[in-house]
Write the structure tokens for this entry.
Amino acid sequence: MPIDQRRPREIRADIRAGHISGVTAGLGPGYVQANLAALPRDQAYDFLLFCQRNPRPCPLLEVTDVGAVEPVGVAPGADLRTDIPRYRIYRSGVVVDETTDATRYWRDDLVAFLLGCSFTFEWALLEAGVQLRHIEQGRNVAMWRTSIPCRPAGIFHGQMVVSMRPIPASLLARAVTASARFPGAHGAPIHIGDPAAIGIRDLDQPDWGDAQEFKPGDVPVFWACGVTPQAAALASKPPLMITHSPGHMFLTDIPNSTLAAL
Amino acid sequence: MPIDQRRPREIRADIRAGHISGVTAGLGPGYVQANLAALPRDQAYDFLLFCQRNPRPCPLLEVTDVGAVEPVGVAPGADLRTDIPRYRIYRSGVVVDETTDATRYWRDDLVAFLLGCSFTFEWALLEAGVQLRHIEQGRNVAMWRTSIPCRPAGIFHGQMVVSMRPIPASLLARAVTASARFPGAHGAPIHIGDPAAIGIRDLDQPDWGDAQEFKPGDVPVFWACGVTPQAAALASKPPLMITHSPGHMFLTDIPNSTLAAL
């Protein structure tokens, strides 16, 4: 994948100006990228509580003040209405638009939630010498809805969604310790091995993303996935919800290393 | 201090029946004890956001559903109105009662927040061989309001409150690593050494608790303190707030080890 070594702030300016509208993998290497979910204030308390009760799939990095478009904690000066390459607009749980500028949909009562994403722990895995098959093969990871219930909060409920990566057995322990250091990016695996134990029937048929190729000795390793909160939010059919489009993340100014647990 | 080795569930039953009304140090060793702050639903969103934005002083263990008195996540079967030895009742930021049974003050719109407390990391320090002067001397720790601002959230704002323990220089590193494992109980120190650097003028004059005796070679070590959210909440003068009385904590059923970071 192409690497854009500039600082996130410069890249966001290009996104805002409409010069970048593609996926963000490879942009601003070393910096945390985030999922966006913006919801009306009326739904925000339940969503915040859902994230607090389910921190593994929903690692909160930033919650804006009501109506604020600047995520002051992770990207001062940014504008969440324009600085993501592509947005999805949902009304009552249904996609009504996909756009590169969410300004005309934004409302004064929206609260924006930014959540950690797998890019950070994948970086940690690669740094630790754990190769990732889907990156080698230029594919997306495989994702499933599991049988593991999230702890509900108000109107939000649902099963945990996981992503799966094939890991050589000899590197399992390293994959656990390397990702566990980053609780702000889903942390350690939630399951290793038998897919049936968490309600996954067929590793060749993911619910989202691409099937993965296993090499001899590879073990399936499952991490909590940021699709979880989005799926739970959509199931509750909020009147308005604005998210990033899959793969089109928000680039923060904080280095991956700042998400490391002490 | 006397040790009550029974399980928290049995001790809570004695508290509920009125047989125990004192401080909870030494009760149910090995299990997490928690701070209580119960607030009306109207203030709960801002308080939840304040805790999310300030996790070191405000490590959330449990947030009940609106009106629920059972903290199902950490103590199934418990009743937060009766199972704490002593409560303080605040109206508009002023103590109006201290009681062993909060039932008559509880309202259907209250949300109860349980936050981790220093007992867990003090246990971790002792297990790691770090002696604690205030325990040896039968005193309370020393606490100060610092110059470190919390990140505000809605109506809640304030400076971080810290507790201080004198630690021998040779054990500083061990004190850091032992407490850092427990982010759910304030985690690693937020400052080591010079009190003036965080706005503390006189180590002999704590804002709360007892002055500590230093032995030669001891260094002052400061941890974020659960007084922070309570002070921030009271400063906003909520119409009703119910807390535990200092030292009279809620006993959960979860072992200290479950708060260890992965």
Notes: The helical segments of chain B are 8-16, 41-53, 118-127, 133-136, 172-180, 227-235. The interface with chain A takes residues 44-45, 48-49, 51-53, 60, 63, 65, 73, 151, 153-154, 180, 183, 187-188, 261-262 of chain B (CB under 8 Å). The longest strand of chain B covers residues 31-40.
